[in-house]
Amino acid sequence: MPLKPFFSRIGGKTLLCQRIVNNFFPNNYTELNYIELFAGGLSVLFYKEKSKNEIINDLDQDIYNLFTDLLFINNNDINEFDFTSDKSTFERLKNEEYSSTLFKERFYRNMYITFNSYCSCRRVFYPNERKLTRLKENLE
User: What's the CA gap between 95 and 38, in Å, rounded?
Assistant: First the structure.
C-alpha cells in the first residue's frame, strides 16, 4: 500500500499521482533513476514503486531539509515535539535562524511551520493539529 504524504502543499499531486504514475514507462521503472523535480509533499514518490535511485529536488531548502531530516527521526522524537497551534510560536519559528547541523530542531521547526500554516504554504498561520496523525502513521 502506498504511503500518503504527511503534509500537503499548494499544487500538490495527491489526487493526480495514480494518473501520473500510469504514464511512466511501461517497462520496469524500478530499475531506473527517479528524479522528483518539484518535491512538495512527494505524493508521486510515495505512490509509485521504489526506484533504483530516487532524487528529490525543490527550490525551497526547508522542504528538502524536511525529507532529509526525516531519515533521522522516529516516533519517540515526534512525541517529544509540541505541535500545539500558537501564532506567536509560528511567527518566531518562521523567522528564526537555525543551525543546519541540528536535524531534530530543524525538522521540528519546519514541521511546525508547515502543520500550522494555511494549505501548508508556510507563510500564513492557520491552526491545524490533526496533520500530525499522518506523520506518525508514515513513520511506523
Answer: 24
